[in-house]
Description:
It contains four helices and three strands, in the order H-E-E-H-H-E-H. The chain is α+β, with helices and mostly antiparallel strands. Strand 1 and strand 2 (46-53) form a beta hairpin.
Amino acid sequence: MSATRMGRINEEIQRAMAELIRSVKDPRVHGLISVTAVETTPDLKYAKIYISVLDKSDVDQVIKGLKSASGYLRRELGHTLSLRYTPELTFLRDDSMAKGAHILEILEGLDK
């Protein structure tokens, strides 16, 4: 499968997941939740969904809530997208913003 097609599929899954997460009824899934990235395997069997949460203290609970709702999210994703296979979803914490801020602090400390 071409890289551009995989990129489009990942973007579509990311967009659909951002919408679907809002409909999850689990009380652990609350607050401002962003889907920052999606990585799908070339055979479309598995997808890693990277999640960022505004309130950093609730990240683990949000991930647990999303994992428990993954069956619902996968079914709804299958209805939304027309793919041969609906990928199995894995939710992961995205700490890239915190790592970027830490690197920026280090770089600013070098100037002093």
